[in-house]
Amino acid sequence: MESREKNYDVIIVGGGLVGGCLAQALSLQDFQVAVVDENDVSKILQDYRDGRSYAISLGSKRILDEIGLWSSLEKQTQSIETILVGSEVDESFLTYHREDVGEDALGFMVDAGLFRRTILSKSLKSENVTWLSNSTVDEYQVSAEKVTVKTSQGDTITAKLMVAADGARSQMRTLMGISTREWKYEQLALVFDVEHKNPHENTAVEIFTPDGPFAILPHKGQSAGCVWSLKRSYAEDFLKLSKQEMEDALNLRFEKVFGTLKLITPVSSFPLSVRQPDCCVQTRFVMVGDAAHTIHPLAGQGANLGFRDVQVLVRELTKVLKLGMDIGSESVLKKYQRKRRFDNLSMLMITDSSARVFATQNPFMRWSFSKGFKFLNRTSRIKKHMMRHAMGLVKDFPRL
Amino acid sequence: MPHTDLKEIEQFSKHAAHWWDEQGPLQGLHAMNPARLQFIKHHLCRHFNRDENSKEPFKGLSFCDVGCGGGILTEPLTRLGAKMTGIDASEEAIAIAKQHAQSMKLKIDYQLLESEGLLKKKKKFDAVLSLEVVEHVANLQAFLSECSGLIKPEGALILSTLNKTWKAWALGIVVAENILKWAPKGAHDWNKFVSPQDLAARLRDEDVETLAVEGINYCPTQGWRLGSNIDINYILYGKKV
Questions:
Q1: Residue range B160-175: mean pLDDT, rounded
Q2: Nearest to A198 by CA among A264, A263, A257, A254
Q3: Is A394 part of any domain?
Q4: Structural domain contains residue B1
């Protein structure tokens, strides 16, 4: 392919949910953006299926609305009006209802494939976004004034800022030599969709079982997506079961939730880990989404943290652009890092400690827990605050 | 050279290599820049009847940055569309400014000159800006007269400096230079600080009417911000009449 050098304001590596949203949001503010993505655009537009769904918080919905994506998604989303969180052992449940916070919904379930296609077709229409598909970063150079990227397709592009949105196993992060700290849970998440006998009534349920948390999230109609995080050895036993055996095992424990469950997809699995990079900015380089933080998926907060990254980054970059200043300067990136650190770390700690505490077998811990649950259910102020944080509605986080 | 203070120029030349280092000896200037630019953009957009939300609001206007140093202010104004001229008496600073603008692909006319020299070339600008310079010149009235002389009729002037208060001495010199190292040691001389009232009166003598003064204050959680407290750092907008 012919080599050509083009200049942009921002280069985004990774055109997934977070990278795509960032491109769209920046283009609306008149930034010139190049997206380097390893996937084939036409393939994603035609028949990209993922099987997963994302739980989108109300805060994320508002961000997506601002950048003009929500209206294209809205019709095909399933709203969540009630969330039940409880323990399998003593059947104590904490109920979150939309009316507790005076909102129309607590969150939404969005099909991953639909999400991806919507973002992509929107960015492809934007004059300010150049999408380089089937491309990876071959060479990367950073100087005090700019970054230069050579892609695997032979394109040479330069920009004032490089953003890595290339996921939990970020190639850019490795290339930049940013080390990460990782905790493995020795757990596998089993992921599958089910049909259920009774209507879900727009309810999402998270049950903490002694083996690990089980989440059942409503889809359109009488179906739901399930995520069951289990100890590795235990999960591997489940993976060996036949469809019928698996359904029996599920119904034995979870039939009371939405009635008899029937598997409608194969059971897939992925290992659970928490990963936190030592920093998320370097000279003219910044990370967003899973590249900047991988948390325990039990509360479904991963994508939501990514959208909040996008919101804060775009806001800071726009301020600087409007003043004519250098958008890749150290002070802007440091400001972004400072503003995001508390939110990201606190969500990591909340999900991590829930995962550990709920999985405990210690009877005293379990007893204090169910007491704590009942206390929380009655104490609406604390509960409301916790809900608003999880819903992405807590506006200002203390700066660290 | 009637009002250049050689010692002052030497002071800034020494730090020329660090002009663009945001953590370096001139970090104070970098940190104040967003607040300064916010004030400048707001008032100059109103002055020239431009839309603050457009990408290049200053397109078609010519500005002169007097005492531009490495171009910390000159470059952003260029990106906002202004045709910029930057002058400075320090050879080292002008060299850095030229080199940096080139690497940023910005077209700026940098000249190793003082306001007096530029005035002799009979150049006039839509606006003249001189930030954190007033407190370094030897002959203030002569300097203001030259700035005014560079402005077209109905044009605008922006100045920023330190107030002549004990607070400005305590914070601007003792704390900023000696403790926090936001500015190089010995960069400021309290005797050259001037109050906004005094500055406005002096400007009136040079046909410039002061229309707005705001403070630039440091808040530990939010950084430098514009505000009504003008006890320490302040920025002024005036109009040539």
A1: 81
A2: A257
A3: no
A4: no
pLDDT in tens, B54-76: 999 999 999 999 999 999 999 99
SS3 percent helix, strand, coil of chain B, rounded to 5, is 40, 25, 35
Query: Which positions in chain B touch A322 (Cβ < 8 Å)?
Result: 41, 53
The CATH number of whichever domain residue B23 belongs to comes to: 3.40.50.150
> pLDDT > 90: what percent of chain B?
63
The string of pLDDT tens digits covering residues A277-300 is 888 889 999 999 988 887 766 555
The domain tally of chain B equals 1
Whether B203 is in a domain gets the answer yes
What residues in chain A have per-residue pLDDT under 50? 1-2, 396-400
Tens digits of residue pLDDT in A209-241: 888 888 888 988 889 989 888 888 889 999 999
Q: Give the helix/strand (H/E) hosting A193.
A: strand A180-196
Q: What is the pLDDT at residue A244?
A: 95
Q: Which tokens sit at B223?
A: 């950084």
Number of domains within chain A: 1
Contacts of A144 in chain B (CB under 8 A): 20, 103
* pLDDT value, residue A397: 42
| Any domain includes A336 | yes
Of B176, B196, B117, the C-alpha closest to B149 is B117
pLDDT at A371: 61
Ramachandran class of B65: left when φ > 0, alpha when ψ lies in -120 to 50, beta otherwise = beta
Cβ atoms of residues A85 and A258 within 8 Å: no
Asked if ipTM goes beyond 0.90, one says: no
Whole domain around residue B187: which residue ranges? 6-240
Strands B233-240 and B151-162: antiparallel
**The pLDDT value given to residue A202:** 92
The domain that holds A302 is classified in CATH as 3.50.50.60
Cα distance between residue A84 and residue A213, in whole Å: 13
A-chain CB neighbours of B41 within 8 Å are: 322-324
B223 touches A334 (CB < 8 A): no
Integer Cα distance of A376 and A369 in angstroms: 10
Please give the average per-residue pLDDT across B72-98, as a whole number. 96
Structure tokens at B27: 């970090």
Instruction: Kindly report the nearest CA distance between residue B13 and chain A, in angstroms.
Output: 21
Distance CA A277, CA A220 (A): 37
Task: Flag whether A232 is in a domain.
Answer: no
**Phi-psi domain of A24 (left: phi exceeds 0; alpha: psi -120 through 50; beta: other):** alpha
Six-digit token pair at B123?
Answer: 């150049």
Could you tell me which chain A residue has the CA closest to the CA of B78? A324
Output the CA torsion A10→A12→B38→A339 (10° steps).
-150
